[in-house]
Amino acid sequence: MGIEEKCEILRGISECVPENGLGEEEEKENLLQNFLPLRSYSKLADQKVFLIIGGRGAGKTELFRIMTSCGGFTHIINEKDRKRYTGLKESEFLIGYVANGSGAKVFPASSVCTDWLKIEKPEELASFWGGLVCSVILRRFESDQEVRELASAYLGDDVSKILIENSNELFRWWKKLEFRKEMWESFLDRVDDILHQRGECVFITYDELDRICSNYGDLFVFIRGLLDFWYRHNSRFTNLKAKIFLRNDLYNAKALQFVDASKMGSYQMELSWNAISLYRLLVKRMANAEIDSLVVYLKKVPGLLQVAAKDKLGYLPGDSEDALKLLMEKMIGKYMGKTPKRGASYTWVPNHIQDANGEMVPRAFLRCFAFAAEEMLNHKDEILNLEAERVLSPTRLQGALEKVSFTRVKELTWEEYQWLQNLINRIHGKTMLMKQEEFLEYLQPCNWPEEERDKLPGKTSTEILEALLALGIVMKTTDGRINVPEIYLHGFGLKRKGGIKRTK
Question: The whole model's pTM is what?
Answer without folding.
Answer: 0.88
